[in-house]
Amino acid sequence: MTTFTVQHTLFALGSFFSQPASPKAVQAPQWIAFNQTLAEQLQLPADLHATETGLGVWSGNQVPNWAQPRAHAYAGHQFGNLVPQLGDGRALLLAEVTDRNGKRWDIQLKGAGPTAFSRGGDGRSAIGPVLREYLLSETMFVLGVPTTRALAAVASGELVFRDQGGVPGAVFTRVASSHLRIGSFQFASLHGGAEKVKQLADYAIARHYPELTETAEGNRYLAFLHAVAMRQAELVSQWLRVGFIHGVMNTDNTSICGETIDYGPAAFLDVYHPQKVFSSIDRRGRYAFNSQPAIAQWNLARLAECLLPLLVAEHEQEDENSAKSAREDAIALATRVLDDYSERAQALWISTMGAKLGIEQPHSEDDSLIQDFLVLLQSHEIDYTQAFWQLANELTDSSAAGGPEAPAVNLFAEPEKYLAWRHCWLQRLEQNQRPVEETISAMRSVNPALIPRNHRIAEAITEVEESGSLQRFYTLLNAWQTPYNMPSNELELELYQAPSKEEEVQRTFCGT
């Protein structure tokens, strides 16, 4: 027997951190998708599944008695520029629920109408971004990357108007460990000072880092900063592993839980290019693929600035000099955390990329081997996913001429430089203590064969916008649930293929 447990702890923090908001009914809701497995994990009552009642709730047309819709307040640095107030302009937190494992989750509607933070916007979402977030978040989940989840998507039966004119609208139901962001702390700092920052930090620690509650108060907030930093390092290392580019790593899009959140212009690499960007706004490459670890550190520095008053020694400051000294000590402590992040991110990069190459115990001396392979991919314009997947085929007796069973050498039109690198790589693998079959299996477990390629998502969006058909969407959603299997059927072999130059998607849009 399941128990549907609901809380409203963000609401309990008071109106400073969130504002009441009611969803605006849509004209003709219709199901796009419903995540039955996730619903069961969250212990949702049966009438909230893919039923008429569920359709009413997840479209925003019905507000159940267990919901207390709120729009969360936050600020943020957007492309490096501070915006003092942003907030949920098209999202509503309905409630927090506890799953069958005792973990608490936020349930949020996106595209359900305007809020106090909409800044003149309509609070709606086009169907394209809803399909994109559903496909990306659910594929990231099976890829093993920390992420928010998709519970439901509902077509609104209405048009929303964006730069390209009227397009079909939709409402998306997102599930997250919480929606607290670095921008949440920036809002608290800018508008409430140290008192509000402390209130929010205590809440975040109790909810997400309860192991820190016993830490002495003078050190608790430093430990919190460190814990958030380590989760960010883990998250970004997983992005690099699968070739993911967030697109807009603003501080308001950086979860303190270490989950991927806000799949706006997010996309995956095709041809490896370290400075690849996907946001239509990112003309200077701030959020390029290889820049993501450094940007995460920059964002963490903004969190450290908010927490700095809490890091200052709590003893009574007798004079200006002692106050200055205490602040300098706090800055030094925060800087040490940022340095720890950098060291951890580098160590994770070595271990993650080394594992992709099949190295059993990667270490810092493997950096040049890893870098040399990436340089080869860039200079020869080789697909990132295919290169790592087919590298494992070099350890088999495969003689396939093309496709996912072919050795990686077949990807190179001029293979001489690759073969020289391959020689060094095979020599390095001789240090492994495991059988070659285990190395192949280990490589298969970290290198996906199928990723949600941008041009395939674009096909699904175009199909639904032009004909109303969701067939391609369902096809992709199902196929991408087993990304680490060897592609075998006709569809999987199609989805394994990299896009042609004409099919490549160069920019994506957030859809707000």
Description:
This protein is of the alpha+beta class and 512 residues long. The protein has 15 helices and 13 strands. It has helices at residues 9-12, 36-41, 52-58, 127-143, 182-208, 217-242, 292-311, 320-356, 367-380, 384-391, 416-429, 436-446, 454-467, 471-479, 490-496; strands spanning 5-7, 18-20, 30-34, 70-72, 76-78, 81-83, 91-98, 104-110, 125-126, 149-162, 165-176, 244-245, 267-268. The strands form 4 sheets. Strands 1, 3, 7, 8, 9, 10 and 11 form a 7-stranded antiparallel beta sheet that branches. A two-stranded antiparallel ribbon has the order 2-4. The chain has a two-stranded antiparallel sheet with strand order 5-6.
Which SSEs are present, and which pair or pack?
Elements: E1 5-7, H1 9-12, E2 18-20, E3 30-34, H2 36-41, H3 52-58, E4 70-72, E5 76-78, E6 81-83, E7 91-98, E8 104-110, E9 125-126, H4 127-143, E10 149-162, E11 165-176, H5 182-208, H6 217-242, E12 244-245, E13 267-268, H7 292-311, H8 320-356, H9 367-380, H10 384-391, H11 416-429, H12 436-446, H13 454-467, H14 471-479, H15 490-496
Antiparallel strand pairs: 1-7, 2-4, 3-10, 5-6, 7-8, 8-11, 9-11, 10-11, 12-13
